[in-house]
Each structure stands twice: as C-alpha cells, then as structure tokens.
Amino acid sequence: xxxxxxxxxxxxxxxxxxxxxxxxxxxxxxxxRQFHPEAEAVPAQRAQLAQRSRAALPPRVDAAVLxxxxxxxxxxxxxxxxxxxxGGVRARDFLLARFTRIGLAPAAGQxxxxxxxxxxxxxxRFWRKAWWQAHPPVAGVNLLGRIPGSAEPGxxxxxxxxxxxxxxxxxxxxxxxxxxxxxxxxxxxxxxxxKAHPPRHTxxxxxxxxxxxxxxxxxxxxxxPPVPLASIVANINFDMLSRNPHGELFMSGLYANPQLQxxxxxxxxxxxxxxxxxxxxxxxxxxxxDWTRSxxxxxxxxxxxxxxxxxxxxxxxxxxxxxxxxxxxxxxxxSVANAMVDVVAALDATPDARIARAx
Length: 359
Ligand SMILES: [Zn+2]
Description:
The protein is α/β, with parallel strands linked by helices. It contains eleven helices and eleven strands.
C-alpha cells in the first residue's frame, strides 16, 4: 500500500473521531441547558428562614390524637400495611372507623372504598401466560371521604396520603411509621380541624393504597375519578412528615406551579418547622432528585392539576424495618401537622383563579 494512502486514511479517521466528539459535546451542552440547578438555592432559603418569627398561630392539632393514630397504623399488628395483605385490611378497618368518627361523608359514591386492581411487576411480561398464572392481579382499596364546601361545593381540593407500606419481607415487618403512617395521621388531623371549621371548597380526603407498588391507588383515582378531574382545584399530598435531624420539611411543586408561592410564603413565614422549597425541577437522567413523580402527586401532575407535595428527605430508616414509631421526632411532627392545617386553610381561602395554573 502506498505511504500517502495510509496517511490520508489516518487523517480521515481522526476527522471522524473529532466530529463524533464535537457532536457529543454539543449534544450534552444542549441537553444540560434545559435544567435549572439554581432553581432551589436551598442554603439561601435556610438563611432567610432563620430570621423568621415562628408560630404566630395557636396549635390546631390535638397532638395526642395525631400521635395515637400514627402509633396505631405503625403497630406490628398492622404487619406493615402491604397492599392486598391482611395487614392492609386491618389498616383499612382502622381508617374507616376514623373517617366515620370524624364525620366525613363517603366520597366514592355511597361508600368510602374505591377498589382497584393492578398487575404486579413492571408489566413487561404480559405475553407470558405461565408467569401471569403464578402472579394474579393484586387488589387495592383507596379510602375517600369528604367535607362539602360552604361557598364552592363544586370545586374540590384533594388532600392525600398513602396508607400502604411494604408489609412483611423475609419475615420482618416494615412498620412504615414515617412512610407513611405520619402522612395519614396528619391528613386525619386536617380533616378533624376542617370538620369543625367548614371549608369554602369541598375537601376530599384520599388515603391511597398501593403507593409503594408504583402509585397504583392514585393512578386508579385519576383514571376513574369520583369527581370530574376538571373540578379538582389542587392536590396536596403528604408522604413522610415526622422526622428530620434539622427540623426541615420540603415542599415540592412550585417549579410546576409557581402561582402557588404567594399562597404558601405567608404560611412558611409563620410555620414552626423549616419549610424548604425544592426537589421539583427537571434534572438530568443521572440525577433522580426530582420528586414530582415519586409519590401520589405524580398522577395529578400528569393530568395538569396544580399540586403540592410535603415530605422530609430520606433518612437511614427509610424503607427499613427500623422505620418505627419510637424513632419519630414527636415535637417536629406535631409542628408539621399544624403547618399542614395552615397550608390547606391558606389554599382554601385563595380564589380559584389564583390557584389555577397559568396557561
Ligand atoms: Zn411513602
């Protein structure tokens, strides 16, 4: 082979490599430009909130009832509240009694119960008949109760918290005291307060099942909604409210719903827990810190319904048998539940046009 041919081919190879590398670099640059890491600025929020004067409001939540509800749901007798398990049925019986006691009206037709079914697993083996025969559909039940609105009964704010958890695995109970007995007990506290202080909007309290299996209950809710989706003004979702070493609670949702910041700013200025905004802007595929679809607000977000999600950052007992009631930070949790009443009250007092997403 002639020498100059060899040199020409080497040059061409290098040109192709350079072209590939440049295209990759430009692609990466364009891809990362769509993310906004500056959107949260959490240290600046902490510094600003350190100046606030806390707790201008008297407590609205009965701490003993709140902690008693959380303790009961996280009790070993509930066996971790796995979807489709006897422990899940016991948790449901407990919640039905609480809904009745509080005086909520049934919101799934004449009943509190909204049953649904789903296929276990990821749904990629649907053609394998033998696999399906070994894995029958799982039955879940959402519990739905409501307080009718005094001014706008046709407009609905959905306050939600999943009651299922991981059940029993390898012979060990996963009590899920923080995840998410805490959210459910706080939801019951919010319901109790509004039963005595009638809201302007209808409040629909949704205790979802099957969240840990892939947001199954909330997906079933938006697929077969008990009220028209267009009548749902907003979804406020609670998931993990009861412990954080720094007394911090995150609120996600303002990136998608910036119109709600003016509603929540006054609430967080007087809240005892430190409420930080974040975990809600789009991120690169290798960064899973966007919580938009990590709990039951996800299906509401998918339908374009304004949403806010409250929850703490993961802790060492997250999704472990050690997520027990004994490890809950009771003072923090009670302060969070009081703040959640304030959040729902602020939203309920806001005209619908200011809650609606700008289009
Ligand atoms: Zn959870």
